[in-house]
Known about the structure:
- It is a single chain.
- With 367 residues, this protein is an all-alpha fold.
- It is built from 16 helices and 2 strands.
- The protein has helices spanning 2-7, 10-19, 28-55, 67-72, 84-98, 104-129, 137-159, 183-201, 207-227, 229-235, 246-264, 273-291, 294-300, 302-321, 331-337, 342-362; strands spanning 167-170, 175-178.
- Helix 8 (183-201) packs antiparallel against helix 12 and helix 13 packs antiparallel against helix 16.
- It is globular, with a radius of gyration of 20 Å.
Amino acid sequence: MLFWLLQHFGPFLEQAESVSSGDSRVFLTARIALAAITSFLAALWFGPIAIAWLKSRFRERVDSASQRLNELHAAKNATPTMGGLFIVAAVIVASVLCADLSNSFVLFALVAVLGFAAIGAIDDWVKISSHQRGLTVRQKFLAQWGLALMLGGGLYWHQHTYPLGVDLIWPLGANSIPLGIGFILWAAFVLVGSSNGVNLTDGLDGLAGGCLVFAGSAFTVLTYLSGHRLMAEYLSIPHMQGVGELGVLFGAMVGAMLGFLWYNCYPAQVFMGDTGSLPMGALLGLGALATRQEVLLVIVGGIFVIETLSVIFQVGWFKLTKRRLIACSPLHNHFLFKGDHEMKIVVRFWIGSALLALVAVASLKIR
């Protein structure tokens, strides 16, 4: 809406073009900031309404495979979940108000957010309304992969004409591997992996939300730089025309997560559930694919990667030796089992996420 108004305000636009940057002709930087503020205020406003509604319908059932973990989390039983509904609502509202809705990258991102939110909502609803622990692994993966393959196909169609648009780029040395049509499968893997990585991290009050603030901030910068021809050339990163508009969505994501943390910080009044973790993780993955920075996603989302690997290694090690590699996976549960307070674990993970985001952005100039 704001983009349309500025675009059609002729005399003012002529002045704006002389001072605006990137591919967006009308104050991209200001619209990113406005999207962050709008989504933050929207999340704050939606929060009490959503929590009251969720409290009467969707309460968390503490029912993991670990009896000890259930005991440690007993106080969280019956806390409202599916708070991702008002995270997604805040992101959508801010995006509709501030982003260019004719931009293909923006449309792909909105489809990813809404699609993965729907999968997460179904998973949460099955968990709450029955004795199951959500969708089966097969059902969940089929839904995620189906949506991810469609998004991968769309990105391939849009990006294959760009220089390095469908190449796998190694940041150090600027080496690349042409993926060709294989980009679609690679894109699906990145989207599914990123969404599930955030989902696995969402186990303590404020943990995933805080890490998403730092990761989202990093990708706000990365999308802006990739969409800015001069900055991309200066940093020797792929210039993807129009991708700067994704910065508006990432700004909205950061604002929405800050608003959500207002209610999700310890002790949490609401959990995001799969309804929030899956779409926010998918948005990170889509940002990496659009900017051709999947390798940097591993650094930016290092906490999510470590949490995911801790589960994979724990399961593999147990199958091989019948012993546990760590006390409990994902990794944050290991420290919980060792007696660390929940907030100490969360803040330390936040610190790690902030440092990784800074390292990733700083590495752009290392060539």
